[in-house]
Amino acid sequence: xxxFKTFINSPVGPKTTHFWGPVxxxxxxxxxxxDIDKPPEMLxxxxxxxxxxxxxxxMRFAWMVRPRNYLLLACHASxxxxxxxxxxxxxxxxxxxxxxxxxxxxx
Length: 107
Known about the structure:
The protein is mainly alpha-helical. Helix content is 66%, strand content 0%. The chain is built from 4 helices and no strands. The protein has helices at 2-9, 17-34, 45-64, 70-94. The N and C termini lie far apart (81 Å). InterPro entries: MPC.
């Protein structure tokens, strides 16, 4: 009971935005995971890139804010991982990550 009461009243407990913000942000991770089965042509490179930058900035914020928000850090680290995977799928689908052939003629 003491642990539960301490958690409820903590600075990052469910009475604060330090708790509910990360809980809501897990929706980004769930959406990216749901898009894994979609073809790369359906992905938006711009939006995926923006989500990567957003998660990187939020990870820094979660680390620097006092008290440290480990739930937000974990959420955005997970989102960064999934979004980078999606960005690599998009880049491969666009042909950006293909090996380029040497165009010099051999003699």
